[in-house]
Amino acid sequence: MRYIFIIFTFYIGYSQSNYDEVIISEISNDSKIKKIDSLIELNERDLNIDVLNSFIQEYSIWLFKNKKTEHISMAEKAVKYVKMQSPKDILRIQKSLYILGQFYYRNKNEKSLETLNEAIALKKYTSIAAGAMSYIGDVCSEKGDFYNAIAHYKMSESIYLNNNEFKRLAWLYLKTFDSYMSLKTLENLDLAKVYILKADSLAKIYPQSNKNTFKRLVLLGDVYNQDLTLDIPNALNYYNKAYELALKLNDSIKLSIVYSLKGNLFNTTDFDKAISYHNKALKLRMKVNPNSAYVDYGNLGYCYFRKKQFDKSIFYYNESLKNRSSFSVFEIERTKEKLFKSEDLENMLKLLTYISEAYNEKANKESYRKAISIFMLADKVLDLVRISSTEKQSRLFWRDQASNLYSKSIKACYAANNLAKLHYFIEKNKAIVLQEDIIYHQLKESNRIPKNIIAQENFLRRQIYINKKNTFSNNPDSLKFSLLNHKKELEKLNDSIKKYTSFYAKRTSDIITSLNQVQLNVVKNESIIEYAVFDDVIYGVFISKDNIEKFRIEDLEIIRTYIKEYLSLVSKPFSNKKDKEEYKIVANKLFNLFIPKSIQKHIRNSKLTIIPDNYLAKIPFEAFINNEGNYLIVQNEIQYQLSNSFLNTISKKESNVNTIAVFVPMSFKVKSLQKLPNSIIEAEAIMKVVPVELFANMKAVKSSFLSELPKHNILHLATHANANDSISPWIAFRDKKITLEELYLTKNNADLVVLSACKTNDGKLAEGEGVLSLSRGFFQTGTKSVIASLWNVDDKATANIIVDFYKNLKKKQTKSKALRNAKLSYLNNSSLSESSPYYWASLVFLGENNAIELPKRSYLRDYIISLGILLLGIFYFLFKKRG
What we know:
This protein is α/β, with parallel strands linked by helices. It is built from 40 helices and 16 strands. The strands form four sheets. Strands 7-6-8-12-15-16 form a six-stranded mixed sheet, sandwiched between helices. It starts with a helix and ends with a helix.
C-alpha cells in the first residue's frame, strides 16, 4: 500500500505539472486544448478524480478567458468531479457551482438560476455566495422582476459588509440603483439616489476601475435625467465627465453610450438636438457594436413621434425591433415567434407600445387596425414578463405598467369601433393577478397534486409571512437570509406544482371572457356597465341581451371635483335640507355622466351590474339620483363585480356545509380600538332569523376564526377593520388582528362573507389591478361572494339592514336582491337625517349572485322539552288526584 500511495501522489503531481506546462507553452491555443483534452480523457478513463479536480476548474476558466465554447462543459465536469471526490467540502462545491452558474449566465443559459441557487442553498455566506446572489439579481432584473432583484442585491451587500469586503460593493450599488430606477416612482427614485451616493462615497476611498468609474458617472447623470425630476444642467455635468473619460480611453462604445444619453436628455425639450446626438451614437455603434443599435433606433423613433412624423417614427421603432429580435411589424406572421423568444421582452414591450401609439396617431381605419394587431402582440409579451416575475410586488408593478398599454389599446379599439377587442382590453385591465391567484388556489384544491406537496407549500408560505413580520420589526441579516431561502424553496416548489397538470396554464391563458359570451350570459331585464379609468378619459361599455354600446367620458378634472364632493356628502348624515339638496344636485350630475342618456332607457327597472375601475370602486352608484329625483336603488337592483371574467374564475364548487358563523368581539385587547356594544344586538337579531354559531366577546378570538373559517358556508364578522393600514390591511378579533397577508394563507369554501366593519371594500389602489381590499383576501382563498363596506358604518343602521338581509335570504331571494330590499326597507322606514345614504349605501355586494340555502332551525329539542313538560304536568295531576 505504501508504494501505491507514492505512485498515486506522483501521478497527480505529474498531471498538474503537465497541465501547467501546456498552458505556459508557446504552442497555439488550439494545440493546448488538444493536449489538455487528451489528458482529461486519460484520467476520466482511469477514474482519476483527484487528478481531474486538480486542474479542470482552472482549465474551464482559461477556456472562458480565451473565448472557447468548451468552457461550460468543463465547468460542468468540475462540479461533477468535486461532488464525487469531496461531497463534504461545501466551500469547494460552492465555488464550482458559482463559476458554472456565472458561465451559464453569460451564455444566456436558463440553467444559470438553478445553479446559482444551488450554490446559495449550501448556506455558506462567503464572498462566493454574495457573487451568486448578485448574479441572481441580474437574472431577475433582466426578467423585469425588480423587487426580487433588489432583495438579492441587498443580501449580497449584507454578506460583503459582514466579511469586510468593501471594494466589491461599488459595482453592486450601481446595479441596485438601476433596479430601483426601473420601478419609476418618486419613492424608488429616492432609494436609488441612496445607492448611487453609496457608490460615489466608495469611489473616494477605494480606487475604481475605468469601467466602474464610467458607469458611476453615467448613473449619476441618470438621476437627473428622469421625467419626474428632469434637471438638464446637472445631468449634462455628469455626462460630460463620462464623455471625457471615454475620449481619454479612446473607447468608441462608451462614447456612443454618452451620445445616446445626451440625446435622451433632450428627447422632450429639443427634438432636433436630440436627433443629432442619437445619429452620432448610431453611427459609432454601427461601427463597433451594431447589435446594440436598437437603443438609438428606438430613441430616434421617439423623437420623430414627438415631432408628429409618424411614418418615420414607425420606421425607426421597427428598426429597433429588428436589431434586437429580428421581429418586424411589417412581417408579423413570419417573424412573431422571434419576438416571443427575445431575451429582452421588457424593451420589446415598450417598442410595440410605441409603434402602436404611432399608428393610433395616424388616425385612419387601416392604422387603427394595424395598431390593434400590434397591441395584441404587446399584450402577450406583457403576460410573459408578468408571469415570469415571482414576487407579487413585481407582478403588481407590471400590472401598473400595463395600464399605459391598455389605455392606448382601448383608445384604438374605441376609434375603430371594434367592440370585441375594446371589451377584451377593458377586462384585461382588471384584477388579472387576483384571477391568476384564484386559479392557482383552485389547482391546489383539485386533488391533482399530492397532499404532502400542498402541505409543504402551505408551510413555506407561513414561514415567509413570519419572516417578513419579524424582519419588519427586527431586521437582522439572519432573518433576511431565512426569508430569501424560504422564497427560493417556495418558487422551486411552485414550479413543480405547475408541472403536475396543464390545468393552470390552460386557465391562465384563457382567462378573459369574450364579449360574445358575456352577452350570451346576460338574461332579460339585466344589464352591465363596465368602466376603464385613465388619466384623461373614462371609457365605458354597456351590455344587455339585445344591445352593446360604447361611450366615453371626458373633462375628468370636473368629474374628479364632483366625485370628491359626492364622497364628502355621502359619507356623513344630512344635517339639514340644504345638505340634501346639494347632495341631490351632485348625485344627479354623476348619474348623467356615468350613465349616458342613450343608456338610461335600457336600464329602467332592471338588474344592473356595475364593474367600476380605479377610484370608481369607492363610489356607491345606487345612491346616485336619477332624473325622476329618486335614488337609483329605487329603480335598480345593483351589484358590483371586479370584472366579467372574474365571475367565471370564481369557484363553482358547491359547499358541503350549511352553517353560519358569527364573530362579535365587542371589546378588544388593543386599547386603541373602541368597544362595539351594539354588535351583539346585531348578532342576537340575526339569531332570531336563522340559527348561527355565535362567537362573542371572549370566544371571538383569532385562533377560533382561523379554525372555523373552512367549516361554514356563511361567515359574518361584526368588528373593526382597517383596509388602509400602511403595513397591511387587517380585521380585529378579541385578542389579535388578522392581516390581509395572513388571509392569503387561509382557505375557505364560503358562499358568502359579510364584513360588517369599516371600509372593508376600501384599500390601496393598484393601477390595472384594482383596490387591494380585505374582500380580495377572501375571494383569493375560495369565497364566492362578499358584502363589504365603503366607509365607516353606523352600527344601528347597519344592524337593521343586515337583519333584514338575512330575512330576505330566508325567502330565497338572491344575495343582491336581498341586500337591495333590506336597504329599501330601511329607507321606507326612515325619515329626515336617518334616510341619508350615509346610513344605507356603504354596504356593497360583489361576487356570485345566487339564492343561498340557509340552515334550518331544528325543532326536535323544543319538541322534547315540551313533551317533557307535558308528561311532568300529567304526572303531577295524577299524583295530586290520588292524594
